Amino acid sequence: MEGENTKPKILIFGGTGYLGKYMVKASVASGHKTFVYARPVTQNSRPSKVEIHKEFQGIGVTIIEGELDEHEKIVSVLKEVDVVISTVAYPQFLDQLKIVDAIKVAGNIKRFLPSEFGCEESRVRPLPPFEACLETKRIVRRAIEAAQIPYTFVSANLCGAYFVNVLLRPSESHDDVVVYGSGEAKAVFNYEEDIAKCTIKVINDPRTCNQIVIYRPQASIISQLELISLWEQKTGWSFKRIHVSEEELVKLSETLPPPEDIQISIIHSTLPKGDLMNFELGEDDIEASMLYPDFKFTTIDQLLDIFLIDPPKPARTAFE
Questions:
Q1: What is the C-alpha to C-alpha distance for residues 40 and 178, in angstroms, rounded to an integer?
Q2: β-strand partners of 145
Q3: Span 165-188, pLDDT tens digits
Q4: Distance from CA of residue 181 to its chain's centroid?
Q5: Residue 49 appears among annotated catalytic residues
Q6: How far apart are CA 54 and CA 118, in angstroms?
Q7: Which letter does DSSP use for residue 209 in this model?
Q8: 3-class DSSP assignment, residue 104
Q9: Residue 196 in 3-state DSSP?
């Protein structure tokens, strides 16, 4: 069995953000020496950021404080690790080109996973605000490929806990729920812990090198209406459905300021349009639950049970 000292050392950018926190904990739990490159903590930092730094240090994470424009510092850190995972937020997507430049100079990175973890951007054509967001990801992809850096692009679809909070609002007292479109289109809701754990498996798998990996387990696929009904069964509550049409979402995407226009465009694409399930997986596609049949993805039923016992707090994910 692979010893702890031979496991790849992992550097995570954006590790104190929403998905990044899950990624860091999954890396440590899997026995990897884990580094986090994060902005410096200052007197103006939010208390939550200070706490997450303390928590990471308590579990053995090495935190390097710096900015993405500190090229020499990033190069020196890269030379100490084997794998780089980025979970930086939307405003920093193009700043990942600085990470690409540093990886080229360091010359030792065995795998780079840029900040993807959403829909497979080559297979959707969403509203303009979301399309512009995806185009920044495509620019980073092309730069990685041009630099011949070994990569894996992860399409993890929807962050399950985040979207359960958005759609069901379990932390609030209410008697209605918003349904986008008809509510019948299927979507893929993957629990963030599973996204992180599976990604840590992907980083050292030769089958995923220079490939796109799609996380689409059957147990994570459900429609809005099915999700609401399942929540009603578990809680004993009954909710009035308030439908927001696709046309209304289009108008909102044209009138809301950034980043709200992007968020509403994501909802339009993934929920009423059903873009996450609008394409078939072919023989050349790599799907995570097929690649790792022994890995048990959290089912939607189990995810809702988590919300009954210890509900994850609402968050802004990539827009924090």
A1: 39
A2: none
A3: 999 999 999 999 999 999 999 999
A4: 24
A5: no
A6: 29
A7: T
A8: helix
A9: helix
Burial 119-144 (b: 16+ CB within 10 A, else e): bbbeebebbebbeebbebbeebbebb
Task: Tell me the whole-structure pTM to 2 decimals.
Answer: 0.96
- Side chain identity at 220, as an amino acid letter? S
Closest CA to 201 of 306, 294, 86: 294
| C-alpha span between 306 and 303 (Å, rounded) | 5
Cβ neighbours for 244, distance < 8 A, ≥ 6 positions apart: 178, 179, 180, 181
Q: Of the listed 21, 137, 197, 273, which one is catalytic? A: 137
Length of the chain: 320
- Per-residue pLDDT of 241-283, as tens digits, reads 999 999 999 999 999 999 999 999 999 999 999 999 999 999 9
Sign of CA dihedral 130, 203, 5, 296: positive
22 in Cβ contact with 59 (< 8 Å): no
Residue 283 contacts by C-beta under 8 Å, 6 or more apart in sequence? none
The amino acid present at 70, given as its one-letter code, is E
